[in-house]
């Protein structure tokens, strides 16, 4: 438990580092540079329903779960 | 709606009036019903865009923005994309293309006379020009009182491209959209023929075509209108205004025609070229686009 | 007719104008954006009214000689011009087949009575499984609406099957910074699951034939997550999510059993139900990246997971969206997953040894590696609305075939044989 918390703090620090390092790079993107970013395939999960099916399959076959969202309903998958 | 559909040679021509000018849709087909569908789609879209973005109406988003007197106005997605496009043009032209410059028309009248506004009048109105005074964030626009925006500079070309996309979704035939001289051609006609576009003599609009352009595919737009000018110190000043000085661009070409992949791009490039006055030709050469300057 | 390069009817003097050869390219990108806001759908911009989307997916899942699942799902989404949207989703799962009961091969032909009342006869070396048949109905709904830089999202979930019920709610808040280039997301969820196994829930380490109905002891799952997404360039963005889940209540699998074997011969002398702790804390860090080449897109993700049952896992996923034509793409997909064993995983219990505090022989809590290979083909048929996707996938699961704690006769059997699974997912998306 305690070890987990330490790791959590370390991860949060890493998150902050990623965020601040990107500050200067970010300023270069103008509105008209968003053409590619605006496309449907330019999302982390372009097909959320297929993704949910995948998660469901892996949940029923593996010991780990979660990561991408706070949502998710359980199932009694054997 | 006052649409008219006629058979000319081996294609159909549909005509209607919108956005203060004559509009045409040419359809390379033998099927009257399909041509009719294309015409109705174009007519409907032209009217929709005119209604939504015309600054002469009192019931649209432009009116809400222009009467906000400093209040933030959230806008819909389509308006936001047009404003985003205008911002892109503003930045890449170093402030020469500015949708807030329309208020300069309060002091300039391009009626062929020799009346020019006083320096004081120009200075006064210039206080209300400049996109840098506007806050545009998260699809919400906040603009000081007294300023106005006008999307008319891109509206007609945008309508052409939108109408073309709608027609393409409706029929498979080759077609050409012409809204008051701003055009889009969808592709080669049957028999691998291009659409033929006559470019008017700016001095005699509608009477004599100076030359012809073959346009198989893409957008075409012309900027400049030789009938709108004032005379000053023996010079003839066209209606293209520099938003920084508040004065017309000197020695601007009378007419700049550009071909690009969409009508919107063609329109913006031709205006950008006009704003460079005598440098228009070099500018367009550098861009590597097809153009004609008169 | 010469254009561009040729002299016009009237040439003008040149001006020392600044060179700007890139304007055309920038303009093209800007125009692209302008029309990206709804040209194919059209309905979106037309008088800015609300639009509806329909998504249908169908999953067919088949594990060689074990489970097969058919899962159709339909989702309706209503989108409003101000960015607000609602969705409602109905999914049905029809599961049939057999799942490993947790016991080891008996060494002799045997007949087993399971908790669900079915009877199976099997050969000596076969992994005992429990046959089952179930239908699950799931309802999901959600709402989201952007308010300036803040986008809250709310969702609800309900699912029910013969012996399991799940009800949950979740909320999320995304905050945009730096002109929407940086997004911070905070989320939380709560789920309450209840198991009603045939014959009642088991107390753990009991003879399966003597199951006592202990009434309902729900499983409560609380999740919290923090995410940061960053657009780095016009083509590249990355996100990092940290999530923490606390589970409490009945975490045991009611139908999973442990074999009680003779310490020397390895022959089965009895069976006991498994027993797991009543809490579990899971943590995961997920890193996602999307990179847009000129047309094709590369998706990569990596997840590191750990929990207080001492299970740790690494998941690496790679997808490459390869655009074949205007309206078709082929996306190969590779996933590698590997986990270490939980602290109380045992392939069997030895008769006469003192009972451990907890034990399970569920292969999902033992050492395990999963390899997934697949491809998605997507297309928009000409002249008809909507986008179709078809995906075929192979999932191979490799357990520890001959675990160290196997005794006697059990050493000769493959206790965790490789499980091969095939899935087919068909999806259809329609805007109207």
Which descriptors would you attach to this protein?
heterotrimer, A: 78 residues, mainly alpha, 3 helices, elongated, B: 294 residues, alpha+beta, eight-stranded antiparallel β-sheet, three-stranded antiparallel β-sheet, 7 helices, 31% helix
Topology of helices and strands:
The complex is a heterotrimer of chains A (78), B (294) and C (432).
Chain A: H1 2-21, H2 23-26, H3 48-61
Chain B: E1 4-8, E2 11-18, E3 21-27, H1 32-53, H2 61-66, E4 73-74, H3 77-92, H4 119-126, E5 135-137, E6 140-142, H5 152-170, E7 175-179, E8 182-186, E9 195-200, E10 209-215, E11 217-223, E12 229-232, E13 235-238, E14 256-260, H6 263-275, H7 280-287, E15 290-293
Antiparallel strand pairs in B: 1-2, 2-3, 3-7, 4-6, 5-6, 7-8, 8-11, 9-10, 11-14, 12-13, 14-15
Chain C: H1 23-36, E1 51-63, E2 67-79, E3 85-100, E4 110-113, E5 119-122, E6 129-144, E7 150-161, E8 164-177, E9 182-195, E10 219-231, E11 236-249, E12 257-261, E13 268-273, E14 279-292, E15 297-307, E16 312-325, E17 328-339, E18 349-350, E19 368-379, E20 387-399, E21 419-431
Parallel strand pairs in C: 12-18
Antiparallel strand pairs in C: 1-2, 1-21, 2-3, 3-6, 4-5, 6-7, 7-8, 8-9, 9-10, 10-11, 11-14, 12-13, 14-15, 15-16, 16-17, 17-19, 19-20, 20-21
Coarse shape of chain A: elongated
Q: Kindly report the average pLDDT value of chain A.
A: 64
- Terminal CA distance of chain B reads 36 Å
Uncertain residue ranges of chain A? 12-28
Which pair of chains forms the biggest interface, and how many residues does each contribute? Answer: A-C, 56 and 111 residues
Q: In percent, how much strand structure appears in the residues of chain A? A: under 5%
Number of DSSP-assigned strands of chain B: 15
Main sheet strand line-up of chain B: 1-2-3-7-8-11-14-15
Portion of residues within helices of chain B: 25-40%
The largest sheet of chain A, given as strand count, sense and whether it forms a barrel, is: none
Shape of chain B: globular
Order of helices and strands of chain A: HHH
Assembly type of the chains comes to heterotrimer
Low-confidence stretches of chain B: none
Distance between the termini of chain A: 28 Å
Rg of Cα set of chain B: 20 Å
**Strand residue percentage of chain B:** 25-35%
């Amino acid at each position: 438990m305690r070890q987990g918390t330490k790791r959590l703090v370390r991860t949060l620090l890493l998150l902050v580092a990623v965020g601040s390092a990107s500050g200067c790079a970010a300023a270069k993107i103008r509105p008209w540079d968003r053409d590619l970013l605006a496309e449907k395939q330019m999302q982390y999960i372009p097909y959320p329903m297929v993704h949910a099916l995948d998660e469901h399959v892996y949940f029923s076959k593996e010991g780990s779960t979660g990561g991408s969202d706070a949502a998710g309903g359980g199932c009694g998958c054997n | 709606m006052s649409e008219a559909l006629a058979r000319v040679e081996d294609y159909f021509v549909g005509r209607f009036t919108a956005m203060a000018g004559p509009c045409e849709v040419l359809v390379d087909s033998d099927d009257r019903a399909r041509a009719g569908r294309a015409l109705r789609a174009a007519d409907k879209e032209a009217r929709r865009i005119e209604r939504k973005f015309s600054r002469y109406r009192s019931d649209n988003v432009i009116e809400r923005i222009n009467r906000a007197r400093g209040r933030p106005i959230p806008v819909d997605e389509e308006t936001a994309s047009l404003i985003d496009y205008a911002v892109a043009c503003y930045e890449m032209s170093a402030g020469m293309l500015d949708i807030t410059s329309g208020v300069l028309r309060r002091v300039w009248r391009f009626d062929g006379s020799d009346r020019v506004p006083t320096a004081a009048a120009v200075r006064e109105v210039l206080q209300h020009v400049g996109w840098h005074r506007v806050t545009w964030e998260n699809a919400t626009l906040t603009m000081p009182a007294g300023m106005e925006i006008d999307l008319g500079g891109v509206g007609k070309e945008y309508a052409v491209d939108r109408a073309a996309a709608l027609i393409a979704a409706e029929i498979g035939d080759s077609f050409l959209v012409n809204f008051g001289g701003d055009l889009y051609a969808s592709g080669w006609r049957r028999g691998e023929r291009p659409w033929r576009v006559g470019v008017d003599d700016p001095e005699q609009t509608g009477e004599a075509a100076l030359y012809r352009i073959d346009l198989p595919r893409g957008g075409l737009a012309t900027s400049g209108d030789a009938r709108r000018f004032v005379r000053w110190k023996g010079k003839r000043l066209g209606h293209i205004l520099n938003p920084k000085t508040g004065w017309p661009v000197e020695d601007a070409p009378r007419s700049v025609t550009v071909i690009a992949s969409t009508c919107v791009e063609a329109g913006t490039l031709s205006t950008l070229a006009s704003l460079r006055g005598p440098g228009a030709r070099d500018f367009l050469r550098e861009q590597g686009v097809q153009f004609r300057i008169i | 007719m010469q254009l561009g390069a040729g002299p016009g009817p009237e040439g003008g003097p040149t001006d020392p104008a600044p060179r700007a050869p890139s304007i055309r390219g920038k303009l093209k990108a800007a125009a692209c954006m302008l029309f990206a806001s709804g040209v194919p759908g059209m309905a979106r911009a037309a008088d800015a009214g609300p639009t509806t989307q329909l998504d249908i997916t169908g999953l067919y899942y088949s594990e060689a000689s074990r489970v097969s699942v058919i899962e159709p799902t339909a989702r309706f989404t209503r989108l409003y011009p101000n960015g607000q949207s609602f969705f409602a989703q109905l999914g049905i799962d029809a599961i049939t087949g057999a799942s490993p009961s947790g016991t080891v091969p008996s060494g002799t032909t045997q007949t087993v009575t399971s908790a669900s009342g079915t009877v199976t006869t099997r050969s000596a070396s076969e992994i005992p499984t429990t046959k089952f048949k179930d239908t699950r109905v799931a309802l999901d709904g959600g709402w989201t609406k952007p308010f300036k830089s803040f986008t809250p999202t709310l969702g609800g979930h309900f699912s029910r099957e013969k012996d399991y019920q799940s009800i949950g709610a979740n909320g999320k808040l995304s905050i945009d910074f730096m002109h929407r280039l940086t997004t911070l997301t905070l989320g939380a969820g709560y789920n309450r699951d209840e198991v009603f196994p045939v014959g009642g829930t088991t107390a753990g380490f009991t003879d399966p034939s003597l199951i006592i109905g202990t009434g309902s002891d729900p499983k409560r799952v609380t999740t919290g997550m923090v995410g940061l997404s960053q657009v780095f360039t016009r083509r590249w963005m990355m996100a990092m999510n940290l999530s923490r889940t606390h589970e409490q209540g009945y975490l045991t699998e009611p139908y999973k059993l442990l074999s009680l074997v003779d310490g020397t011969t390895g022959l089965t002398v009895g069976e006991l139900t498994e027993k797991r702790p009543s809490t579990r804390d899971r943590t995961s860090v997920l890193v996602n990246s999307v990179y847009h080449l000129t047309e094709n897109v590369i998706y990569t993700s990596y997840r590191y997971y750990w929990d207080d049952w001492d299970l740790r896992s690494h998941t690496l996923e790679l997808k490459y969206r390869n655009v074949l034509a205007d309206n078709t793409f082929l996306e190969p997909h590779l996933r590698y997953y590997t986990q270490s064993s939980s602290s109380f995983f045992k392939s069997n219990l030895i008769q006469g040894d003192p009972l451990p505090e907890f034990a399970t022989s569920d292969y999902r809590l033992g050492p395990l590696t999963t390899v997934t290979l697949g491809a998605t083909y997507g297309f928009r048929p000409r002249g008809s609305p909507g986008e179709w996707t078809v995906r075929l996938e192979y999932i191979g699961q490799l357990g520890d075939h001959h675990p160290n704690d196997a005794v006697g006769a059990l050493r000769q059997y493959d206790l965790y044989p490789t499980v091969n699974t095939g899935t087919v997912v068909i999806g259809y998306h329609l805007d109207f």
